[in-house]
Amino acid sequence: MLAEQISIFIENKEGRLAEVTAILRDADVNIRALSLADTTDFGVLRLIVNDNEKAEQALRKEGFTVGRTKVLAVEVSDEPGGLNKVLDPLWMQNVNVEYMYAFANPQCKNAIMVFRFDDHDKALEILEKHQIKVITTEDISRL
Amino acid sequence: MPIFDIDFETMPREGLEAIQLRRLQTTIARVYATVPFYRQQFDNAGITPKDIQSLKDLQHIPFTVKQDLRDNYPYGMFAVPMEQVVRIHASSGTTGQPTVVGYTRRDVDTWANLMARSLAAAGAGAGDIIHNAFGYGLFTGGLGAHYGAERLGASVIPVSGGNTKRQITIMKDFKPTILCGTPSYILHLAEVADDMGVDFKDLFFKSGIFGAEPWTENMRQELESKLHLKAVDIYGLSEIIGPGVSIECKEEQNGLHVFEDHFIVEIIDPETGEVLPYGESGELVFTSLTKEAFPVIRYRTRDISSLNPTPCACGRTFVRMTKPAGRTDDMLIIRGVNVFPSQIESVLMENQTIRPHYQLEVDRKGNLDTLTVKVEINEGVFSDDIKSLQTMENKIAHDIKEMLGVTAKVRLVEPKTIQRSQGKAVRVIDKRNF
């Protein structure tokens, strides 16, 4: 039920991000969403793409350190309180967000939020109980 | 494993010392007569060859240092006419002007014998196939190991350094059983093998003989687990003869037996020049006993070690020197603290799951020295969580402070951004201007 994100270690150097995106372009990989967490010296680029396998291979070949992480992707309705509906039941049961980022679902007006929780199993259980739709890697590659 | 030269290698100390004294007296008389530099040194110190009556008298003779060899570049230290020199090697010159050394036919023969002893101590024999990744050329590593392998009766593959992918194909196809090379190049080779999907478990090595640069116990563990072989350390300098001055035995892997029938080894205090007793750590000093073309008298190596005279389980009676812990000249002084790259390496090894590639950058901001330790990230320690990466940086910095008493900034860098070398690794970049 979880989606998969790839992450890349990049040094804080001019043009480095463009190099990554060029590699993905040349490998014909489409980026759905990304977030960059950085320090003064380095950053970790987290990506949701349409083809993890292809993206990972292309980046490895260019010498990047690539990791894969399970994340939870959730569709959030485009209205006041949409995100809160997802977060409320979670924090009340002590599930916390480590990081999150979002992208727009190209098929409708809704947003897709990508979460890394401290306890994914518990998060999944809670979301199911509240009938909140969880999006898988397959769903994402079909978007 | 059989000892190659059993009569000498297991000789009782008394007999050995008698041979040493006789050979020392001959060497001293010869250099006094044939090398103006040494005659001058002896005259300045008020010593004549007749004054050398016991091994202890060696202590009165002045040291020879690298600069003396440079001052006599290229052939000034040779003790025989060029008609008798059959081989010339030179040091890499990474720390300045190169130094040139020569060999007579008998020197080449002696060296082959010492390298055959070394290979045997590492477990090699006739029937073994030796993959010799030491560089061939002016550097003594390649040809030294080559002649030793032939003397031993093993089959040697003179693959030299470089062309790494081809080396791995050769390892798969030729099935070598003994691997020789500098440890940093061998680890690079292991990395490339990994990229090519080749597992050393499926290769045929039983021992590896690694040297020409200092390496740590941690690196031994890394080499042994990655390469599935027994890793032994070999020591030598072109100024003394090349590799084959001392070797670890496969049985104990605990200290390198110095071939004392050919060299006298001393440990001195690098500051005062005073000879230190067994067990104490200081600078290694060698005197050659049988070299003809290029004898050296009390040559200061700049390598730090100590001597252990206790008998070894392997049966060799030669004294053991500990693995060189670094060099007096790659010792960095950072805010008054002595730092050896090998110490930083130990800290890194303890913090990482796979062997890290690293480089030390020393700079001076205002009046303050700064030390930056660059470490390549690898997939074993990478995480998508910034906090855990920063925690790792801080933990390494903390451990360096704890172990060495020096503040360092640790910086994770992308894989393969630190320069790889075919020979010796460039571990230190010192940007300070003194």
Automatic annotation (TrEMBL), chain A:
Organism the protein comes from: Desulfotignum balticum
A Pfam short name: ACT_8
Highest taxon of source: Bacteria
Protein name: Amino acid-binding protein
Every ACT domain range: 5-79
